[in-house]
Amino acid sequence: MAKKKEPLRKCVVTQEMLPKKQLIRIVRNKDGEVFIDDTGKKNGRGAYLSKDKEVIEKAKKTNILQRHLNTTIESTLYDELLEEVSKSWENT
């Protein structure tokens, strides 16, 4: 039986192609709301970040999410992302 192919996505900061499960998806929906998509299936414009504290800090410093999602990003979103990363490190 053939092994199921794992989907790859590109981190907007590091430009690395990684398995989707190793990334965090951030979405901007039609109403302009920006949030973390835990399911990876919500409608809207998406951007992926590696589950790495340094990558998230670099994204904040360079405003790369703002450019990818064409909207302003609240600093609270970065706090949520850092919290999400620390949770995923605790689970491993």
TrEMBL record:
This is YlxR domain-containing protein. Coiled coil: none annotated. It comes from the Bacteria. InterPro entries: YlxR, YlxR-like_sf, YlxR_dom. Pfam families: YlxR. It comes from Tenuibacillus multivorans. Residues 9-81 form the YlxR domain. SUPFAM superfamilies: YlxR-like (SSF64376).
